[in-house]
Structures are given as C-alpha cells and as structure tokens.
Amino acid sequence: MPSQTSSETAEKLKQRINGSNKFVLLATPGSIQSIWIPWELGLADGVKGLDRIAILPLLYKDTTWDEREYYGLYSYIEQVADGRWGVFRQGETTGVPLDSWFES
C-alpha cells in the first residue's frame, strides 16, 4: 500500500476485500480511531455479510467501543481457556473453532 492514501488506496482495499473469503477486523487502539476502518468494515459487510466477518480485539482492558457501537453486530475472535481460538457471535458462549470458520 502507498505511504499516502488516495483513491488508489481505496480501490486496492476494495479489490482485496472483494477477493477475500473472510474479513477480520484487527481492533487496536489505533484502528478504533482510523477513518478507514468504518469504510472497510462497511464495504466488507455489504460484500461478505455478517457470517464472514469477525473482529479480533487487541485492546487494553480499559478501552471501550463507545464510538463504534456497531462492532456489536459482528462475531469476535477470542482465545478460550484451553488455548484454542474461536469465533463467537456477540452474546453467545459457544463458538466455532477459528480454523473451521476460516475454512467454511
């Protein structure tokens, strides 16, 4: 990707999102403030639908989603007690193994 964003950047992102099977949003303190993330997530939502999008939160414990309440629409990726990773719908305690989600 170019160091300066432009309409070319947007087109490259669009092509990559359209060409991928799944979309994972890496939620970091910096990405929460990004002006691109809502656009990327909205594009993925329109192309992939809810079942092919998951959020991987890499946030500090005190970080909140106050300005991104719509993140609650999407499944999230979390490591469970036995060390494996899973994809969970919001509000549910039973998920799908991460590798199975990627393969589906």
Q: Name the strands of the widest sheet in spatial order.
A: 1-2-3-4-5
Contiguous helical run count: 4
Oligomer: single chain
Residues in β-strands, percent: 15-25%
Distance between the termini: 28 Å
Q: What would you call the shape? A: globular
The proportion of residues forming helix, as a percent range, comes to 25-40%
Roughly how many Å is the radius of gyration?
14 Å
Flag low-confidence runs. Answer: none
**Total E-strand runs:** 5
Main sheet overview: 5 strands, mixed
Indicate the mean pLDDT: 88
What is the string of helix and strand elements? Answer: HEHHEEEEH
> What structural category characterises the helix and strand content?
alpha/beta
Describe this structure in words.
The protein is an alpha/beta fold. It has a domain at 7-74. It is 36% helix and 20% strand. The chain contains 4 helices and 5 strands; from the N terminus they run αβααββββα. A 5-stranded mixed β-sheet has the order 1-2-3-4-5. α1 (7-19) runs parallel beside α3 (36-48). The longest helix is centred in the first third of the chain and has 13 residues, at 7-19. The radius of gyration is 14 Å and the shape is globular. The two termini are 28 Å apart.
